[in-house]
Amino acid sequence: MRSPPPSDKLPLSMLTILHTADWHFGAVLYGQRRHREHAAFAEWFIDCVAREKPDVVLISGDIFDTTTPSHQAQTLYYDTIAALRRGGCPHIIVTGGNHDAPSLINAIQPLVQDQGIYIVGAATENPADEVLLLRDSSGNPQMIVCAVPYLRDRDVRLSESGQSPDDKHTALVSGIRYHYEAVTAAACQLRETLDTPVPIVGMGHLFVAGGVAGDGVRDLYVGTLSYVGTDIFSKDLDYVALGHLHVPQQVSGATTIRYSGSPIPMGFGEAKQQKLVLKVTIEGAGIAPLVTPIHVPTFQRLVAISGDWAKIEKSVTALFSELPVPGETAGSDVLASPIWLDIVYTGSEIIPDLRDRIESIVDTQPIRVLRVKNQRPVATWESAPEISLDDLTPEDVFQRCLEAHHVPESQRGVLTDVYRETLAGCLATGDAL
Ligand SMILES: [Mn+2]
Questions:
Q1: Are residues 113 and 130 in the same domain?
Q2: Per-residue pLDDT reduced to its tens digit, 173-195
Q3: Which of 156, 241, 243, 269 could covalently link to 19 via disulfide, CB atoms 3.0 to 4.6 Å apart?
Q4: Rounded Cα–Cα distance for residues 215 and 311 (Å)
């Protein structure tokens, strides 16, 4: 338990924030549900919060993967928030992301608002609605949080009809900037009324220019590139806890404007990244906070393999030595679960039964092939204007096709036979060519 500060005025005690985002509960990857991983993350995070004893947990948007999450995903979210509170975390702030339905996120608000749990599902007309004053257990002001959710077009649009796309884009960026200015101004105004100059922390769910996306990040503003710069965040914000990008990062070298990233890899492209939760320690307003990354364990191994057949066979086989020995207790949950594989074939040989061949290597091993993608290089047709299609027989066209796709000589005979057979079949049944 945290003990209350010795006096009710200055100086401030050290404040600790745990910053996370983009949980995407309910997500599915190539047909595989991620619930087991999310439940494992939730269990780990509850322990992490119990260990770190932060003053506040900030969850910067995309709690759920869809606007209509399953009951199982919702239950996991509510259970997690309740467990954090039961574990003694005094404040939890949740903002809505672009994947979240604001009405769903906000629905629980009446039940939890007196419990130290604050939810901002969407922007309202009053910027002060996003300004939260956190107090310690003695009732002394500790910190102000600008809990800015994902800003939808209609939340910030200052545009009028008849505007060009460029004007609309500029209007949207100005609208987002204006919103941040208004919320920060309301926070500063609130601070002036306090005896203690508490730090102000911002939140956001958006694509800030200079960020690196990662997998599964939907375009925020369809048809535009409405990226805002770090300059929209006022110098009055001691830290900005961002969500939306799944790769943990600081933006444009600003050490106090950060994306925590998603706690589990949302796709195979993120398989090799270390997932993080950020611990932010603030000494006081105007003092640069200390940011310490906390490593999130890997709850499901994802392995992406790309190459020709020889490389795929070698890489898949090499995974066997990393699997747990049957009958032995696995060292961790990671090894107890099958590896999920993503195969991208880039060889030149035509392998019609690619998936079967991969499945046969994997055989009884605890490896699940989630996706097989054939990216055999395909040459584009070279233009030959002097020859018209009328001058060619169907088989001539087929031979040119084999040529253009660089099909090895050794395979051409059998493919030509199959082609002739198909063509004969079509002619026999009268199908149009
Ligand atoms: Mn998002």
A1: yes
A2: 889 999 999 999 999 999 999 99
A3: 241
A4: 24
